[in-house]
Amino acid sequence: MWIDLLPIALLGGLLGLDVVSFPQAMISRPLVAATLAGTLIGHSLSGLLVGAALELIALDTLPFGASRYPEWGSAAVVGGAIFATHSSHPAGAMEMAMIASLTTAWVGGWTMVKLRERNAYWAARRRAALDAGARGTVIDLQLLCMTADLLRGGLLAAASYALFAPLTSLAIGAWSSDARISRAVVVTVAASVAVSAGLKIFHGVSGARWLFLGGLAVGLGIMAVL
Amino acid sequence: MIAAAIAPLPRPERRTALPVRTQIAMFLRLLAIQGSWNYEILLGNGIGFCLEPALRLLPEGIHSDHFKQALARESKYFNAHPYLAAVAVGALARAELDGEAPERIERFRTALCGPLGSVGDRLVWAGWLPFCSLLALAVFGLGGGPVLVLSVFLGSYNFGHFGLRLWGLRTGWKNGLRVASALANPVLRNGPQQIGRLAALATGFAIPLALYRVIGPGRVLLGGVLTAVILSALLLVRLRGRIEGWRLALFILAAFALFSVAH
């Protein structure tokens, strides 16, 4: 586990940076971040599976302006790495990976707020130079804040992985619920959040309900054939 | 503060285009426009950061009072969607290099904040992002592997993302202070509605397929899962605003884990 900590911290830092600071190319979305973390551990498909479940939940939280939202980049790295570590997917592994990710995303959202407050403090301390149009100060402030964000994501991912990886192993050892029921619970929760998020996001779009129902019919039809 | 009483900038010859090197520098900096986002000046410093390569082209250079005054003006409070802020950066670069009056530039900056925020939020955060995410989930549900799923998501999303930033920078530069008319572009005006329709369709299509693939060993319980999903989603919609879905998900999963471990 400890040997994985540094690469996970690096990946968590880079993907945490993507959430807001640079480059917002959405490599921080759970679907991508968890798959990359799974690849890092050597089991990309496990990362993709947990990433898809997390992506369903992440549809509920879109990064509007100054709103406060969970930080999925570093969080999905933790979940993807934990689930990929248990590549035989024993009962409880996906639950624990999801719990690790959701908790990290919650804490990550809080650390982003704190970082933004710190950025404001740094900007205020440089107010005179900024008002004087000091080129070096404008650039330095930007780089300082981005470096702090990189460190924030990296430390968060490392600390969360260090906490949840052993906890997951312990939980899997003591897990008593049936594997099928365990997985069904995860899927029910994730899909419910996704459907409600979809209805919430598109409720103002004309014809959206009918399109949703049409898509659902096609999706269920394909599912029946698969 | 810079002394306000410096001589006005002589009207320079109107540039038709920015040097390619400057355009590249501005575009790369646009990717980091939110790097110093904070609750006091929001995107303000980011705007100054992105404009700085263009301001270097001011006739008197980076050590002049005009450069410093322009950079100070552009690093003040600003709010916009990060991708559409490219429109503001392009337009402000044009205004500064054309030697527009500072008061006019400041009024323009203030007027631009609202539209660039709301249009971008509806087009990207509530439209393009969920659509691309659902598209990738559909590919995943149809059996796509990691490379294919990630390629579909990152390819489609960033086609729109980088395209919008490039369009914004060029349109802003081309139109300068008259850029408001460009915001009537059909993609910006009708895009959110059209993408919203596609995303609604994709929501219905992708979620059952993704669910089918993730469920794995729980597939025997599929009928019950689908019923539970529909009922709990309707319940969540009715609870809208009182609880966030992801928090509820964490609570339910943690409770189930505790039950499974302690039972």
Explained architecture:
The complex is a heterodimer of chains A (226) and B (263). Chain A is mostly helical and 226 residues long. Chain A has one domain. Chain A contains nine helices and no strands. In chain A, helix 3 (44-58) runs antiparallel to helix 4 and helix 5 (93-125) packs antiparallel against helix 7. The radius of gyration of chain A is 20 Å and the shape is globular. The mean pLDDT of chain A is 95. Chain B has 263 residues and is mainly alpha-helical. Chain B has a domain at 20-112. Chain B is built from nine helices and no strands. Chain B has helices at residues 20-30, 44-55, 65-74, 85-97, 102-141, 146-175, 186-215, 222-238, 245-262. In chain B, helix 2 (44-55) packs antiparallel against helix 3 (65-74), helix 5 (102-141) runs antiparallel to helix 6 and helix 5 (102-141) runs parallel beside helix 7 (186-215). Chain B starts with 19 loop residues before the first helix and ends with a helix. The interface between A and B is large, with 115 and 109 residues.
Summarize the model shown:
The complex is a heterodimer of chains A (226) and B (263). Chain A has helices at 2-20, 30-41, 44-58, 72-85, 93-125, 127-131, 135-174, 179-202, 208-225.
Please tell me the overall pLDDT of chain B. 92
| DSSP summary: helix tally of chain A | 9
Q: Tally the beta strands of chain B.
A: 0
In terms of DSSP E residues, the strand content of chain B is: under 5%
Question: What keywords describe this structure?
Answer:
heterodimer, A: 226 residues, mainly alpha, 9 helices, 80% helix, globular, B: 263 residues, 0% strand
Write the layout of secondary structure elements.
The complex is a heterodimer of chains A (about 230) and B (about 260).
Chain A: H1 2-20, H2 30-41, H3 44-58, H4 72-85, H5 93-125, H6 127-131, H7 135-174, H8 179-202, H9 208-225
Helix pairs in contact in A: 1-2, 1-4, 1-7, 2-3, 2-4, 3-4, 3-8, 4-5, 4-7, 5-7
Chain B: H1 20-30, H2 44-55, H3 65-74, H4 85-97, H5 102-141, H6 146-175, H7 186-215, H8 222-238, H9 245-262
Helix pairs in contact in B: 1-2, 2-3, 2-4, 4-5, 4-6, 5-6, 5-7
